[in-house]
Amino acid sequence: MNINPNIKLFGSLLILVLCTSLSPLIAQSDPTGEKRVTGTYAITNATITTAPGKSMAGATILIKDGLIHAVGTNLSLPAETQLIKADSLFIYPGFIDGASNSGITKPNDPQKGENFNPSDPSDELAGITPWRQVMDHFDPKSNQIADWRKTGFTIAQLIPDGGMLTGKSAIVVFGNSKSSNVLAQNTGLYAKFRGSRGTYPATTLGVMAKFRDLYKNAELSAQHARLFASAAGLARPEMNKTYEAFYPVLDKNIPILFEVADDLEIRRALSLQKELGFRMVLVGVTDVDRVIDEIKGSDTKILLSLNLPDDKAFKDKKDNKSEDIKSRLDRVKAAHQNALKQAGILEKAGVKFGFITLGAKSGDMMKNIRLMVANGLSEDAALAALTINNAEILNIQKFTGTLEKGKLANLIISTKPIFAEEAEVKYVMADGYLFDYDLKAKNKGNGIEGVWEYTSETPAGSSGGTIEIKKGDAGYTGTITYDDPAGTGKASTGMNSITYSDNTLSFNFEVPVEGNLLKVNVTGEIKGGSFEGNLSIAEYGSFPMKANKKPNL
Asked: How buried is 310 (Cβ within 10 angstroms: 0-12 exposed, 13-18 middle, 19+ buried)?
C-alpha cells in the first residue's frame, strides 16, 4: 500500500451524554410502581406525541382512574385535579412488544418411556404442545419485566417456550406485580421450524409435513364434531387436544405466529399459509430485502426483531490474520450492515411492521433503534413500530397504541425526544401505575467534555495530537490537531457528525492534501477515560487509534 509519508493520520475522541438535572414529578422516586395514579391528575406543560408524527408543545394530558380523559392545550381542568408539572419533558404512548419471553419459564421436558418409538413419538415428545397456555408459565415478578418496562414497554404479547408448536400466547400489561395484568388470552398459536432431536419430525421439511398433517386432521376433526352436534346417526368423534387447539386458527379467530430465522423460512411459512389459508404473523423477520415482493403479496403481519447481530468484524481486528479469516470477517461485517437496513427496507416498501424484544437485551434496545434510524428508518416509523402498529397487529388498538381520550394511561415520560442519544426514560405509567426512575446515580461520573491526547499508527508511522470536546445547546462540537501533511508542524480542524451512543463514539474530519480534502472517519469505544478504536480513510484502509483524557486542572 502506497501512502504519502507526509500524511500521518490521527484521530479520535470522546463524548459522554451530560444528563440534565430534572425536577421530579413526585417527591420521591418509585421504580416499583406500587403507587397507582387514582383520582384525577393532569401532567402539564410537556411536549406530547399522541401518535407518530403528531406532537404538541406546552400540552397537558388529563388522567382519571387510569384512563386518559383528555389531551391538549388550554384544557379546562376539574377542581379536584392534582397537577404534575412536566416542564421540558416529553410524553409518548407506552411501547408495545409484539412478542416477548419476559418472565416466561420453560416447561419441564417430557420423559421418554421404555417403549419409545422415535419414528412415532407422542405429540409432547415431538415438541407439539399447542394446548399449552403461556400464562401457566409466567412470573409477573420477574426482573425481566422491570428491565423492559424501564426502557418504555408497557404491554407485551407473551410467547410460550417449547418446540415446533409451543402453545397459545397472551397479552399482558406491565403494571403492578400483584395484579394478573392480563389483557387477552389465546391471542395466537406459536409455531417454529424447529425439529425434534432424535425423533420425528427432526428436519425442517419434516416439520412442514407434520404441520400440514396436523392442520388437515384438525379440519377433519372440527368437521366431524360439527356434524355430530347437528345430526343423529354419526359415530362419536374422538377428542384430541392437539386438534382442538387448532380450532380457533381454523375459524380465523387467532393467527399462527410463525417464528422465522431467515428468508428461506419466510418463504416456507408463506407457502404453508397460501396452501392452508390461515391468518399469519411472521415473528423475528430478517433478510426482508430478499422476499419483499412475496411479503407484500400476502396478507401477513410482520414483527421485526430488535435483536441485531454483533458487529464482530469491527471488534475483531484483522491484523496478522489469514486471508480466509479476513474474508469471513468481511462477510460478518456485511451481514451486520444488512441487518441494520431491514426496517428501512420495509418502510420504503410500504409494509407496516412492529418490533419485538424476543431474544434481545434491554440495554441494547435504544442503541439498536438508533442504528436502524441511521440506516434508513424514519423516527416516525420507528415509533409506529413500537406503538400503534403493534397495537393493530395484536388487535388492541381500541384501548392502546396512541394517547387519546378513553385509552389506557400507558405512557412514557422522557428527558429528551425519545430517540435522541441523550434521552432517558424518567417515568413510565402502565395500567395507571407510575414508575419513577432516579437518574441521579446515572449522571455521576460524566465529564467527557475536555481535552484528549491521541495517537494513531499507520504505515507512515506514529502520529498524534489533541482533541477538545465541548457541549452546547445544539450538541457536541470539537477540534482535532494533527501533523500537517505539508510538513509545517501541527494543524487543526473542526470535527463533524459527532455521535456518542452506548460507549461508542464516531466522528469525521477533513484534511487538505495537495488541493484536495481527505475525509477521515473515526469510530471506537470509550471506557472511563480511555478511547480505543479505528481511523479509516477511503482507499487507504483502517488504522488503530487510542486516546486518553487529560485531567481537569
From this structure: exposed
Residue 28 has pLDDT above 70, yes or no: no
Long-range contacts, stretch 196-201, CB < 8 angstroms, 24+ apart: 196/121, 196/125, 196/126, 196/127, 196/163, 196/164, 198/118, 199/118, 199/119, 199/121, 199/125, 199/126, 200/118, 200/119, 200/120, 200/121, 200/126, 201/126, 201/164
Out of 48-57, 333-342, 363-372, pick the least confident: 333-342
Q: Which of 143, 144, 149, 136 is nearest to 175 (CA)?
A: 149
Angle value at C-alpha 89, between 86 and 90, nearest 5 degrees: 120
Q: Is the pLDDT of residue 7 over 70?
A: no
HSE (side-chain half, CA atoms, 13 Å) at 69: 18
- 173 phi, psi to nearest 5 deg: -105, 140
R_g over Cα of the chain: 28
Strands 461-472 and 425-430: unpaired
Using left for φ > 0, alpha for ψ between -120 and 50, and beta otherwise, residue 58 falls in left
Confidence band for 553, pLDDT divided at 50, 70 and 90: very low
* 3-state class (DSSP) for residue 362: helix
Contact yes or no for 463/455 (Cβ under 8 A):
yes
Highest mean pLDDT (candidates 36-50, 114-128, 208-222, 360-374): 208-222
Distance CA 371, CA 38 (A): 39
Q: Give the pLDDT score at 66.
A: 87
Residue among 252, 201, 250, 189 at smallest CA distance from 221? 250
Q: Extract the C-alpha cell encoding 102.
A: 419476559
The grid coordinates listed for 358 are 424476543
Q: Give the residues across from 433 on adjacent strands.
A: 36, 430
pTM: 0.74
Q: CB neighbours (10 Å) of residue 40?
A: 16
Pairing, β 353-356 against β 411-414 = unpaired
Mean pLDDT score, 336-354: 92
Q: Would you tell me how many other CB atoms lie within 10 Å of the CB of residue 463?
A: 20
Contacts of 319 (CB under 8 A, 6+ apart): none
Contacts of residue 540, defined as CB under 8 A and 6 or more positions apart, other chains included, come to 1, 3, 9
Judge contact between 63 and 25, C-beta under 8 A. no
Helix (H) or strand (E) holding 466: strand 461-472
Q: What is the DSSP string of 234-289?
A: -PPPPP-HHHHHHHHHHTTSS-EEEE--SHHHHHHHHHHHHHH---EEEEEE--GG
Are residues 4 and 485 in contact, defined by beta-carbon separation less than 8 angstroms? yes
Q: Which of 23-32, 179-188, 250-259, 344-353 bottoms out in mean pLDDT, i.e. has the lowest?
A: 23-32
Task: Characterize 370-405 residue by residue with b for buried, 16 or more Cβ atoms within 10 angstroms of its Cβ, and e for exposed.
Answer: bbbbebbbbbebbbbbbbbbbbbbbebbeebbbbee
DSSP summary character for residue 499: E
138: helix, strand or coil: strand
Q: Could you give the 3-state DSSP secondary structure of residue 291?
A: coil
